[in-house]
Amino acid sequence: MSNLDWDSKTIIGFKAKAPKVTRNASDLNGARRTGAVVATDKKVTAGGNKARPGPDHQRIAKLDRENEVAPPPKVNASVGKAIQTARMEKQLTQKDLAQKTNEKPSVIQDYESGKAIPNPQVLGKFERILGVKLRGADIGKKLEGPKKS
What we know:
Layout: H1 25-34, H2 55-66, H3 77-89, H4 94-101, H5 105-113, H6 120-130
């Protein structure tokens, strides 16, 4: 029993003070006057410019650009030329061909200029009306009539 320290105190029911968050300067100054331990932390994202992305957003955007899928292929220039020559031979304007195929004139313009994404249904309509092959091999070749057996 000689190791007991008779001068130490054990306080029963004493709670440790939990850290208090203050939002104004007067509470902060009051705590400093009483000698309390004061720590100030700045918020990391407070008052940031939301319109200007930070460096993390730039890295994420770069990753997105690297993972993007290649754009779909456009119509070959040979298909556009074949449509245009067949349309001229039948003496049709782009507007006339658009009405016959039930498409917009801008669609015909896109196909002829090679900016359109190929659609087999639209190409099939053009083939039937113009009588020219537009898909597969032999693009621009005249279509024969229905096969007789």
